[in-house]
Specification:
179 residues; five-stranded parallel beta sheet; 13% strand; globular
């Protein structure tokens, strides 16, 4: 299987792609096909930096050549407020990141597929939030929406989604008693 022609033609002019979509959207097939098309995958080492969450992404963007980044910084704008009441990434940081992608003549790929309307679940809330985030980012960087259902697996063969990363905030904390 290769990328659908419409997707391949759309992403061809961009040397840098940032791929992001809500949990449950299967991106493995797309990332594999992008790698076969000359976009090697780059990932940040570890989670978000505790002082400057955009730093690892800016470091990746400073590298030469064509590549795709499996995003996470955009996901923090969505899941931070949904799960923790706030995001560790500010809108200013996200917009600066979007402009850095645009300066590399890059684009962001908004992965969609499998959304079932607003049923009140976290998944549907995330899908709606991703839509709002990408509409805002599109004012600063090209955004290409890709429906991953076009990249469905071969009949009878399932692709398993990666396990969700555990937030550092979810680890048990210990109290320090002085005195």
């Amino acid at each position: 299987m290769s990328l659908p022609q419409s997707v391949a033609e759309t992403v061809a002019p961009y040397p840098t792609l940032v791929v992001e979509g809500h949990e449950g959207v299967r991106r493995t097939r797309l990332l594999t096909e992008l790698a076969r098309s000359g976009f090697p995958l780059r990932r940040t080492p570890g989670g978000l930096h505790h002082l400057d969450p955009t730093r690892p992404y800016r470091d990746l963007l400073s590298a030469p050549g064509r590549f795709v980044i499996d995003g996470g910084i955009i996901g923090e704008l969505v899941y931070g407020p949904l799960r923790h009441g706030r995001s560790r990434v500010t809108w200013i940081q996200a917009l600066d990141f979007a402009e850095a992608v645009a300066e590399r003549d890059g684009a962001m790929l908004h992965l969609t597929g499998g959304e079932h309307g607003d049923d009140g679940s976290e998944s549907s809330a995330a899908a709606l939030a991703y839509g709002r985030v990408f509409r805002t980012l599109a004012q600063h960087v090209p955004v290409v929406t890709v429906d991953v259902t076009e990249l469905s697996a071969e009949p009878g063969r399932r692709i398993r989604a990666p396990a969700p990363r555990q937030s550092q905030l979810r680890y048990p904390t210990r109290q320090l008693t002085v005195g």
